[in-house]
């Protein structure tokens, strides 16, 4: 019997064998011709995956939080006004980071946990106070809320704010068209829908973001994340020339390039559709089992993860039972409701078989926890979607 459990948390996710093989390749010098080619190709592929043909990609060792830090460090000068569209924990984090670089931050909060601010409220905030930039969390992993990014980005543009999108839980899983939707900077991390082990921070800066950076009057208050250091490095690798500022994580970048190749082979439209279909199947199962979700309505729910509340009489110990049934899930993250809900990631290379295994393990765990339901009802609901979609 396999001794490995299925990892279905909202990052890190399961990775393909080819990606994992790349992690184990002999590590070469970061200025060896083979690595220069790989990083150069990865940078070109990132433009395609972000749907941002005129963007400037940055790839560096770090996690998604470093990508947020890089965005704020390079775009904010002390005293700048920034607006945070907040749908959970990661909106709070962006507000903290922006404030750390001296921004005067206004937040538009969701009316309730699991909801998203109305476009009119965001427009009113931008109207009240001209902002240099606004941040949007495409999918807040603490609430599983997915926002109307094109609608919000259009507002940012209308009011002259740089539009910065935290796409850590969305890029390469949720539909996201950086250039067409007028987003000035999109950031992500490797370990989620991009399908690469944790350890890479990725940023795609559009022309308006780079202009704002070039017009800064004050130096960037962060040494490692300063674009002054990284712009020549990224340009050199794309021109297939060696360059050095900080040692790149060679094997992670091999793995990233393999995953980007797989993403482009699948095709972005097919990948977005697969994430929608598997999410619909999983959410149908959760509803059939009688569990409510944190997002207040289906139009507010992301496709990359699901956040169900525990049913009455069940608590976080059910995650242990589900783990015994072979599937690892995540507990709650939003501080106000942390103990009342759990989270399932279904992104990256996820398959229909993964969805069915996960629903099956949840049924076993819930039964063990004493929750009463008709056995198989979740599986049947998921199958119905998978059969017809
Ligand atoms: N933003 C979002 C939406 C996230 O889900 C996460 C990670 N869960 C982060 C930012 C931070 O990324 P990391 O944990 O890689 O620093």
Query: Residue-averaged pLDDT, rounded?
Result: 97
Which sequence of SSEs, written as H and E, runs from N to C? EHHEHEHEHEEEHEEEHHHHEHEEEHH
Ligands and ions found: 4'-deoxy-4'-aminopyridoxal-5'-phosphate
Q: What gap, in angstroms, lies between the N and C termini?
A: 32 Å
Major pleated sheet: 7 strands, mixed
Percentage of residues in helical conformation: 40-55%
Count of distinct strands: 14
Q: Look at the helices and sheets and give the structural class.
A: alpha/beta
In DSSP terms (H or I, runs of 4 or more residues), the helix count works out at 13
Unreliable spans? none
Q: What gyration radius follows from the Cα positions, in whole Å?
A: 21 Å
């Amino acid at each position: 019997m396999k001794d490995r459990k299925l990892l279905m948390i909202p990052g890190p996710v399961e990775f393909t064998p080819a990606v994992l093989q790349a992690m184990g390749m002999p590590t070469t010098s970061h200025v060896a011709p083979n690595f220069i080619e790989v990083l150069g190709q990865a940078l070109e592929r990132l433009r395609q995956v972000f749907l941002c043909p005129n963007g400037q990609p940055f790839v560096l060792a770090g996690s998604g939080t470093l990508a947020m830090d890089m965005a704020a460090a390079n775009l904010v000068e002390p005293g700048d006004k920034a607006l945070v569209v907040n749908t959970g924990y990661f909106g709070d984090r962006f507000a903290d980071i922006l404030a750390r670089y001296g921004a005067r931050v206004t937040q538009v909060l969701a009316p309730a946990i699991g909801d998203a601010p109305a476009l009119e409220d965001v427009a009113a905030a931008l109207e009240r106070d001209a902002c240099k930039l606004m941040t949007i969390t495409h999918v807040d992993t603490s609430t599983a809320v997915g926002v109307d990014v094109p609608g919000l980005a259009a507002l940012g543009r209308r009011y002259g704010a740089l539009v910065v999108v935290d796409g850590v839980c969305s890029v390469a899983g949720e539909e996201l068209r950086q250039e067409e939707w007028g987003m000035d900077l999109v950031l992500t991390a490797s370990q989620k829908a991009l399908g690469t082990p944790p350890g890479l921070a990725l940023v795609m800066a559009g022309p308006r973001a780079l202009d704002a950076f070039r017009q800064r009057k004050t130096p960037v208050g962060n040494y490692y994340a300063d674009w002054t250091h990284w712009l020549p490095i990224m340009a050199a690798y794309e021109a297939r020339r060696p360059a050095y500022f900080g040692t790149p994580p060679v094997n992670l970048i091999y793995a990233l390039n393999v995953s980007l190749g797989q993403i482009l082979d699948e095709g972005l439209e097919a990948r977005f559709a697969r994430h929608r279909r598997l999410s619909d199947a999983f959410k149908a199962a959760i509803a059939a089992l009688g569990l409510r979700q944190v997002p207040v309505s289906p139009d507010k729910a992301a496709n990359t993860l699901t956040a169900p509340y525990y049913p009455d009489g069940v608590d976080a110990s059910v995650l242990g039972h589900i783990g015994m049934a072979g599937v690892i899930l995540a507990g709650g993250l939003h501080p106000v409701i942390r103990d009342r809900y759990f989270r399932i990631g279904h992104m990256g290379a996820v398959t229909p078989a993964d969805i069915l295994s996960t629903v099956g393990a949840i049924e076993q765990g819930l039964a063990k926890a004493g929750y009463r339901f008709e056995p198989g009802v979740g599986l049947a609901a998921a199958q119905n979607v998978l059969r017809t979609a």
